[in-house]
Amino acid sequence: MSATISEQAEIRSMAHELARRELSLRTAAIDSGDQDAWAECWQLLTETGLDRALLDERHGGVGLGVAELLTVVEELAIGDGGIAMSVLLCNAALATLSDEQLAGLGEGARWALVPATSGTELAISNGQLDGNIACALGCHGVDGVVLLALDRSSPATWALHANTAGLKFKRDLAQLGLRGAAAASLELQDVSAPSTDCDTVIDGASASALLYAGTAAIARGIARRAHEMAFEYAQARQQGGVAIIEHDAVSDMLTAMAVRLTCRPEMLIEASGKLRLAQSLAAKIAATDAAVATTTDAVQVFGGTGYMVETGIEKLMRDAKYCQLFPQANWLLYRELTKA
Amino acid sequence: MTTLVESQPLSERFPRLTARVDVRELERLRTRAHRFAEQHIRPRALEIDRHTDQDPAWFDWDLVRAGAQEGLLSFLIPKPAGGAGGLATQAAIVMEELCAACPGIALIFGAHALGISPLLLGGPSQWDGVLAELVASERTDSPLLMACAITEPEAGTDVEDPDLLARARITSHARRVPGGFRLSGTKRFISNGSVARWITLLMPTDPRRPVETWTCFLIDARSEGFKVARVEHKMGQRACPAAELTLDEVFVPDERVVGREGDGAPETMIVLACSRPPVGAIATGIARGAYERLQAWLAEDPAAKGLLARQHVQLALANMEEDIHLARQAYMDAATELDHVALGGAMSHPAVRALGRIPAAIRRRAPVNGWLSSPRARDATIALLHRTTTEQAVTRSLGLSSMAKARGGDVAMRVTGTALEITGLRAGPVRAELEKLWRDAKLTQIYEGTNQLNRLEIYRTLCQKETINCLPPLHNHHDGHTQQPASANGNGAQR
What we know:
The complex is a heterodimer. Chain A contains 10 helices and 9 strands. By secondary structure, chain A is an alpha+beta fold. Chain A has 3 domains: 5-103, Butyryl-Coa Dehydrogenase, subunit A, domain 1, CATH 1.10.540; 111-192, Butyryl-CoA Dehydrogenase, subunit A, domain 2, CATH 2.40.110.10; 204-339, Butyryl-CoA Dehydrogenase, subunit A, domain 3. Chain A has a 4-stranded antiparallel β-sheet with strand order 2-3-7-6, with no helix packed on it. Chain A has a 3-stranded mixed β-sheet with strand order 1-4-5. Chain A has a two-stranded antiparallel sheet with strand order 8-9. Chain A is globular and about 70 Å long. Chain B has a single domain (1-479, 490-495), classed as Butyryl-CoA Dehydrogenase, subunit A, domain 3 (Up-down Bundle). The longest helix of chain B is centred in the middle third of the chain and has 37 residues, at 264-300. The A-B interface holds A 120-121, 133-135, 174, 176, 238-241, 249-250, 292, 296, 299-300, 303-310, 314, 317-318, 321-322, 324-326, 328-332, 334 and B 151, 154-158, 163-164, 167-169, 188-189, 232-236, 303, 312, 316, 413, 417, 420-422, 424-428, 431-432, 435, 438-439, 442-443, 445-447, 450-452, 456.
């Protein structure tokens, strides 16, 4: 059951405070690979139950609906896009597990949903899974993964504990963006495929839609932060004797950023609480393209200062680019959208 | 690793060039630069990027030594000073080749060239000083680098436009003292700033009148009071360090004022007209590097199977080809205009050629050298500039240079971004190369003036046909020395 309007506001406010007070303080450290900073953030998220927010209280969750989760990850992305992606992937993975599987998980177990294309990345035959999945976001150091075959008409999922025989993880050290969702490449060799369980919070199709809509929400959070930072800087920075916001070239860029923020992913949810794949795909394409444009322009507003890592604005550009490419690049989604 | 060398000759791609320069020589130059890039730059690009991500101050002198052996440090230095006498056209062609491999490493040589540029405007008076020292060092195991320092913490774009400079928040100051100046202030984002031995640096001698007193100084990095305050951690182009420099009462003798006191603003405009075509070439090289890597991946990687059959990919490749072609046309057009219309007359003037024929040993003797570095000789250099070109010609050149820079920067971002979208996150090793080029590309929209500033310059110079003060005045308002115009080159409406 969805939360009431006041509960939604409260959740949004909590996520907002967490992002501003805790995540944003550690985002630079997380980006530079500081594991302790990341662990501190994750600890705060598990304490508030946001890592498993879609689950009910029996499983340590807070029983949020999909719309509220989208709100939460958007707010968290203002603090750190990678952490928000870890929250999305953990929620999406756990929500596909059955009660029995959830009961067997340790407290604070972190899982990640791993989207893959069947055939090229993931093959199943005779009950065995084989394949290689590169740059699986949020998979470094997880307790388990849920593989999601994206390109099936009815997407299937397979839940695997990290120590499953035949499953290997290798940290992706070349990750450019969303480093708070540290990526790993997955190698599967003759992995026994557990049967997909139907008694779950969401099925494979819904997980797929959640993945796209959630990525859109995270992209929007990143773009909001970029807009805020660029706006503040444009008011403070002087050029030619006036604040640069007084220059049309700059104020128009800031206005364009605000215009791109008018699309809100949580508005995709139907009255029934259902998330449709087509709308989610469209939102993912629109929001991530908008985030790339906004963050790139934000760096431009900062000029040379924006190109320096310490400013934090260039990180938003890298994070937005990863949202555009994850789980698949937007141009590949056009075909999916046509089918949907 | 696939190596692609474009087969179409330069003479066909740039017919305007044929009438003006030795195209075969340019072709040889391009081939040499390409070979150097493939041999020395590309294999080390990712490793150096990672290294400098961990330690931004880390610097690879081996690459500088390799470049020195190839003549990349004396490339723009006039032949009488021992250099190759390269022009903007040649510099741009070399930069495209180097940047297709790694723009960060290429920028080391680009920033060095930028540092040299103000000295070139000094004419023969500069041949036997630092320029000759740079040439000599190129043949040793300790080559010397240069840098150019203009940007300040509170003034970036402002200092690259005379209108904005008048109201800029300049905090640096060169104070007149007996025998020279004492310089104080901070310069920021200076490429090669932490590794350069000599730095051409601009600051006002009267902060209340920055436009009228903006002056170029030649700084020895070993000077007392000069300090590298820090090296920035950049998003990309990391192989070339960007440093913050502080000057605390650094003494600069009169003979190290480049040009004349107060000529810095027009000198900056000429330097920008010279430096923006190579930036257009840097951006074109980045785009080409991404395009070549994408094509190789599409052709060779099993993960890309079937993608070339998709019309989306075909159209994207066609757009890239179109973008790169037009970006290259833009920088070549700007460079050709600069070399053969705006500044060509001064460089090939009979008086300059005659001085160049005097053996260096004689030129360096006290009487000749003393005259060459005298205020009268500096005035003569300015007068020669006025006789051989016009404000309108240099203004138009500046407009075309800004166009090449802005267009190139946008193309670099578009092509690298699209290449990443086509390969996606799961492309294997090429992903890291494309991601790096995408990060590198962003800087080309920012340095040498933001693209917005460059487009406003295009508006003024080419759309509005405004004439910008791009030539130092004949009348030196600081010492009252006056030269009469020697030609009837009329100036248009001045800003």
